[in-house]
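Feature request disguised as a bug report, sorry. It would help if multi-protein outputs had a clear separator. Right now it looks like this:
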Amino acid sequence: MTVKPAFSTRLTAAGNIKASNGILECAIVSNPTATGGNASFVNATSGTGVYVFDVYVRAGDTQYMVFPSDFGFSTGIRVGTMDTGLVVTGVYV
């Protein structure tokens, strides 16, 4: 069995988790604010790109998501839009 190193990126505003193709292993979206918020994950390296999925996080909550090992992004792993106050951490290979 080959073990691939995993990397992580933490975002507090829209931006790239990985600026090239890759596999998103898991994502953690925290919301320390007093109102709910959304983050949109896209297959792109800039802008809003090709929509993949959204996550809504209630006020004061955290969402943990683990994905199948083939959850690949062909262009880049990006949070295209996110509400103010959210914190997104993506783990990728």
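(second protein starts here, but nothing in the output says so)
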Amino acid sequence: MVNQPQIGTTPITDELAYRILAEIMPNLQDTFFRLRGIQEKWVANDVWTTVNTAIASSTTVAGFDANDWKNWGDALTAMLTFIDQPLGEGRPTIKQVLLKNYMKV
């Protein structure tokens, strides 16, 4: 683990390493796992059929406009697709960067 920086006595790189590894990465990892869990439940319970049926019949899903549900599902799919994309030729995916266990060298 990166030590918490001392204000005014720590180089910016130490501060950023701490903030990235101790604050941002754990939150992004948690969000990723939550998104993946929602997607798995969505697929396992065939929510797309419910949403598409509601759109066709102009009804709501759980009290929300069915088109909002379509947008939520599409956004969820797009986010999870995005993090599986490499950062460039021969470089890791966003998911690999997010889930890597970083150690000082």
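Even a blank line would do. Unrelated, but nice: Helices lie at 12-44, 47-57, 66-82, 94-99.
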